[in-house]
């Protein structure tokens, strides 16, 4: 009975640990403007986290992740051009670049990005991107983004240097083709079993095995 109680106590502790929310840290910016959201469906924009309109400033946010739930980071980027009322070149003008860059990290366990780790940067592998005409209408991005430069490079690096708080392997990315006012981006976060969850399952099986052993009839020799 003491062993069974111990197994139950350990399993309860493990289940409590696995139920704790993880934390998503976001550090990002865009040329020229962005809004970032957290969604449980790639087809839904999701809950707003924050935004910014100064590409030389890194914007940092945190969001809670509930254990066992899959998520998507959604970013809507805007390029300021003569077509939407700003004193800059038209869409696609090389003198008026557009791009988004960021670093993302999950602490607390129980989740991973599509690269299989708890850390992600903007790149052309783990993100989807689409050019859109109306930023108020969200649909899941399906295209592969294009990359212009790594952090600290390109026109952004020549003007401002490296973007603080963002990893050196992060890339300035945008949708293809690069001739629109707006782009939408998506990256997946997948819930995965934690070590404590596996431990709880193993302890449960051990407890059941022990109970079965204790209840097994004793066969005496004649």
Produce a short descriptive summary.
Helix content is 21%, strand content 35%.
Task: Tell me what the structure shows.
This protein has 222 residues and is α+β, with helices and mostly antiparallel strands. 21% of the residues lie in helices and 35% in strands. It has one domain (22-195). It contains three helices and twelve strands, in the order H-E-E-E-E-E-E-E-E-E-E-H-E-E-H. The strands form three sheets. Strands 2, 3, 5, 7, 9 and 12 form a six-stranded antiparallel beta sheet that branches. It has a four-stranded antiparallel beta sheet with strand order 4-1-6-8, with no helix packed on it. A two-stranded antiparallel ribbon has the order 10-11. The protein is globular and about 50 Å long. It starts with a helix and ends in a 7-residue tail after the last helix.
**Overall average residue pLDDT:** 86
* Rg (C-alpha, Å): 24 Å
Proportion in β-strands: 25-35%
Largest sheet: 6 strands, antiparallel
Uncertain segments are 3-18, 197-208
CA(first)-CA(last) distance: 31 Å
User: Structural class of the secondary elements?
Assistant: alpha+beta
Total of domains: 1
Please estimate the helix content: 10-25%
Shape: globular
Return the string of H and E elements: HEEEEEEEEEEHEEH
Report the total helices: 3
Number of strands: 12
Signal peptide: 1-21
Transmembrane segments: 195-213
Keywords: Membrane, Signal, Transmembrane, Transmembrane helix
Protein name: MSHA biogenesis protein MshQ
